Amino acid sequence: MSEFEPGADLVSRLPLPGHVVVFADGRWRRGWLIGREHEESGWTGLVQYEDDEGQERTERLPADQIALTAPPAPNEQAS
Questions:
Q1: Which of 11, 23, 29, 35 would be a feasible disulfide site paired with 65, CB 3.0-4.6 Å?
Q2: Model pLDDT for residues 21-75, shown as the tens digit of each residue
Q3: Where are the domains of the chain?
Q4: Are 69 and 18 in contact (CB under 8 A)?
Q5: Which residues pair with 66 in a beta bridge?
């Protein structure tokens, strides 16, 4: 298992609250997973993070936008 594996397994099993990274507003950001819900379309996570203006945001994101670490940058090789 690599450190970067967004998805339902992480969202459904990570103890709450849990430190995560979230894909929001076009980039990966540090945040907290503070809740979760299983819907017909799959798992969603209730997350908190800071936007570009430094304002705290709380919103529901699909599991594939929540991970433990950000993916490697395009010019970095994964180890």
A1: 23
A2: 999 999 999 999 999 999 888 999 999 999 999 999 999 999 999 998 766 666 6
A3: 8-59
A4: no
A5: 22
